[in-house]
Structures are given as structure tokens and as C-alpha cells.
């Protein structure tokens, strides 16, 4: 695990109104936790300061320091918000954050190398690991015990059980 890695915790979704408020979607396990992290960074490394103004069903309305009108708020649309990995709370011995899985080698018990964990996706029905040498040739595998029986973050690998016929050869 690289402690100076940036972890995506949210994304701006555009302007709300004409006074510069911005919609912010939180990717934190507890969405409100995004307001307790500091510093918040944009992808280019610039620090961004936010203040909670209101909450909607699936996002927050925030004031962003230096953003005072609709055009400036809309310019943030799609920008992801990151924190340094080392500001996340400490976790237990056999625990890990999903972000810690990215970059781990993925191999089955026989030693067949499937590449690395490229991403962890969760669209509401459970998490999936995206595995491969690159996004171009990756595949998705449910992040459940029958498919991923072992996670060894310190060892830098996950053991996977890819069902027969799962991949097109």
C-alpha cells in the first residue's frame, strides 16, 4: 500500500442555482464523512475547501471557496475530490479499504496470473473487482468469498477463483 496515494472520496456534479453552490456526491461509506477529511484535493493536486449548505437525496449542496457564481460552479462538474490515503482512520489487522485493493496482483490457487486489481466497482448490488493487465483487456469478478477467497494486502495479492467459461479465450 502506498501511503501517499490519493483516494477518491467524491465528485462534483455541477451547479445548483445561480449563486455558486455546487452539487457534491460522496463516495465515502458514510457520506457525511467527506466533511471530516482534510485536505480535500482535486486531481491536479489543488486543495479545495467546502462548506455544507444542504443535503439532497443523493448529494450534498456545498459552497466551494473561491466559487461565487453558476459558471464557476459548473466548471467543477465531473471533477473528482480526493484525500491522501494516510488521512483515513486506522483499521483492524484483517481489515482494508477498497482502495487498498487497487494494484494488488490477482492469481488463482494454481498460480495463473490474471493481472492486477484495476478498480473496485459497486453499483448497489455488491462490489466487483475489475481485474486485468489494462482496462482494455480487463474483466469483472464479484467480490464475494467464492470468487475472491483470500485478500492479502500486505503480501500484495488477491486469490481469485474464476469460474470455468467466465472468460472468453
List the helices and strands and how they pair.
Elements: E1 6-16, E2 21-26, E3 40-42, E4 47-48, E5 50-55, E6 60-64, H1 70-75, E7 80-84, H2 98-101, E8 105-107, E9 113-122, E10 127-132, E11 139-142, E12 150-152, E13 157-159
Parallel strand pairs: 8-13
Antiparallel strand pairs: 1-2, 1-7, 2-6, 3-4, 3-7, 5-6, 8-9, 9-10, 10-11, 12-13
Describe this structure as you would to a colleague:
It contains 2 helices and 13 strands; from the N terminus they run ββββββαβαββββββ. The model has no long low-confidence stretch (mean pLDDT 91). The protein folds into 2 domains: 6-87, Elongation Factor Tu (Ef-tu), domain 3 (Beta Barrel); 98-159, PRC-barrel domain (SH3 type barrels). With 169 residues, the chain is mainly β.
List descriptors.
6-stranded mixed beta sheet, mainly beta, single chain, 169 residues, SH3 type barrels, Elongation Factor Tu (Ef-tu), domain 3, 13 strands
Summarize the structure.
The protein is mostly beta strands. It has helices at 70-75, 98-101; strands spanning 6-16, 21-26, 40-42, 47-48, 50-55, 60-64, 80-84, 105-107, 113-122, 127-132, 139-142, 150-152, 157-159. The longest helix has 6 residues, at 70-75.
- Portion in strands: 35-45%
Taking Cα atoms only, what radius of gyration do you get, to the nearest Å?
19 Å
In the residues, how many domains can be counted?
2
CATH superfamily heading of the largest domain: RimM
CATH topology of the largest domain: Elongation Factor Tu (Ef-tu), domain 3
- Per DSSP, the total helix count is 2
Question: Which architecture of the largest domain does the CATH hierarchy give at level 2?
Answer: Beta Barrel
Secondary structure tally: strands: 13
Please outline the major beta sheet: 7 strands, antiparallel
Q: Tell me, what is the CATH class of the largest domain?
A: Mainly Beta
Order of helices and strands: EEEEEEHEHEEEEEE
The proportion of residues forming helix, as a percent range, comes to under 10%
**In one word, what is the shape?**
elongated
Amino acid at each position: 500500500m502506498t501511503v501517499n496515494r490519493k483516494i477518491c472520496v467524491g465528485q462534483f456534479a455541477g451547479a445548483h442555482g445561480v449563486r455558486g453552490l455546487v452539487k457534491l456526491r460522496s463516495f465515502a461509506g458514510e457520506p457525511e464523512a467527506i466533511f471530516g477529511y482534510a485536505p480535500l484535493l482535486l486531481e491536479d493536486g489543488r486543495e479545495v475547501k467546502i462548506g455544507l449548505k444542504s443535503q439532497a437525496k443523493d448529494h450534498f449542496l456545498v459552497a466551494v471557496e473561491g466559487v461565487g457564481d453558476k459558471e464557476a460552479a459548473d466548471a467543477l462538474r465531473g471533477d473528482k475530490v480526493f484525500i491522501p490515503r494516510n488521512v483515513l482512520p486506522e483499521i483492524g489487522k484483517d481489515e482494508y479499504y477498497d482502495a487498498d485493493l487497487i494494484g494488488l496482483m490477482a492469481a488463482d490457487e494454481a498460480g495463473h496470473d490474471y493481472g492486477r486489481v484495476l478498480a473496485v466497482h459497486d453499483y448497489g448490488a455488491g462490489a466487483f473487482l475489475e481485474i486485468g493487465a489494462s482496462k482494455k483487456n480487463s474483466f469483472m469478478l464479484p467480490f464475494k468469498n467464492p470468487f475472491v477467497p483470500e485478500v492479502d494486502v500486505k503480501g500484495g495479492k488477491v486469490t481469485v477463483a474464476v469460474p470455468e467459461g467466465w472468460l472468453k479465450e
